[in-house]
């Protein structure tokens, strides 16, 4: 089943296999620009990449209630509309990795190969690790901001980490004379408030059969998001999953070790059957 409302996307590359990228919570498709440009090649002919803004993120429409099935349906609908009848290599990080897995399970004909980055198909319990980010974003007085520099100065008082600050502030956009968050902060905050009932932290029971296509499971060696005991469940849903541990990388594997991710994706593309 596919969603009818297309998501906001950015295209990189003009020919070659089709590759779609799905970002994590509070991210945007353009977080994958460096990787996409590298695998598309200098002439753009090595791959046709699509950087997708997930629902409730970037420039894509908002939803009323979080659901992995809804997200996957919207992704499937967007990919089908972008290239009718063509299958995709689907790459997803964290939240986007879970969406990519659900998309592959529920729309296997659309996914010729899957790359899951530092996430497992399991319930992570809650969104407590994100609550500080949510509170920091909500504390910013949007009506008082005089410009982006003012926003950055104020935000630095509640989020000292410059990397995290820059990542979260990419969601801040001027709308006429006012400022607003592109991410659906109220929806994410409401989900986080559910504690152990968080749908974002969970992984859905789709009832679909296992996905039989090739799967590369990129894991940050220093991350902690994926543990040895997660392999059994991953293999149950994705029998051909091949774990690749990236030593020295944390959860943000594609920004901390871009060369490894680029080379991994190139190998995935080389392994695709030629039509």
Write the layout of secondary structure elements.
Elements lengths: L8 E4 L5 E5 L10 H8 L7 E5 L15 H15 L5 E6 L1 H12 L4 E7 L10 H12 L8 H9 L5 H8 L2 E4 L2 E4 L3 H8 L22 E6 L10 H7 L3 E6 L6 H4 L1 H14 L4
Parallel strand pairs: 2-3, 2-4, 4-5, 5-8, 8-9
Antiparallel strand pairs: 1-3, 6-7
Describe the structure.
By secondary structure, the chain is α/β, with parallel strands linked by helices. It is built from ten helices and nine strands. The chain has helices at residues 33-40, 68-82, 95-106, 128-139, 148-156, 162-169, 185-192, 231-237, 253-256, 258-271; strands at 9-12, 18-22, 48-52, 88-93, 111-117, 172-175, 178-181, 215-220, 241-246. It folds into two domains: 9-122 and 203-271, 3-Layer(aba) Sandwich (Rossmann fold); 128-195. The longest helix has 15 residues, at 68-82. Residues 21-263 form the AB hydrolase-1 domain. Pfam families: Abhydrolase_6. InterPro entries: AB_hydrolase_1 (IPR000073), AB_hydrolase_fold (IPR029058). It comes from Ornithinibacter aureus.
């Amino acid at each position: 089943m596919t969603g009818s409302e297309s998501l906001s996307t950015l295209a990189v590359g003009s020919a070659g296999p089709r590759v779609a990228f799905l970002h994590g919570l509070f991210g945007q498709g353009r977080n994958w620009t460096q990787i996409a440009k590298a695998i598309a090649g200098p002439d753009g002919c090595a791959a046709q990449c699509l950087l997708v803004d997930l629902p409730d993120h970037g420039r894509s429409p908002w939803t009323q209630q979080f659901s992995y099935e809804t997200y996957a349906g919207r992704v499937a609908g967007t990919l089908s509309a972008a290239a009718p009848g063509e299958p995709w290599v689907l790459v997803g990080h964290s939240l986007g990795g879970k969406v990519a897995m659900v998309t592959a399970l529920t729309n296997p004909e659309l996914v010729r190969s899957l790359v899951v980055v530092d996430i497992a198909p399991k319930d992570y319990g809650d969104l407590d690790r994100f609550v500080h980010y949510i509170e920091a974003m909500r504390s910013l007085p949007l009506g008082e901001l005089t410009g982006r520099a003012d926003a950055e100065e104020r935000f630095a008082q509640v989020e000292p980490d410059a990397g995290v600050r820059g990542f979260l502030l990419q969601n801040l956009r001027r709308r006429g004379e006012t400022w607003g968050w592109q991410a659906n902060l109220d929806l994410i905050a409401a989900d986080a408030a559910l504690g152990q009932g968080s749908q974002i932290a969970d992984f859905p029971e789709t009832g679909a059969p296992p996905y039989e296509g090739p799967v590369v499971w990129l894991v940050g060696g220093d991350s902690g998001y994926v543990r040895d005991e997660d392999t059994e469940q991953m293999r149950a849903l994705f029998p051909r999953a091949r774990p690749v541990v990236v030593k020295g990388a944390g959860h943000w594997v594609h920004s901390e070790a871009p060369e490894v991710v680029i080379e991994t994706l190139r190998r995935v593309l080389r392994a695709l059957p030629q039509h």
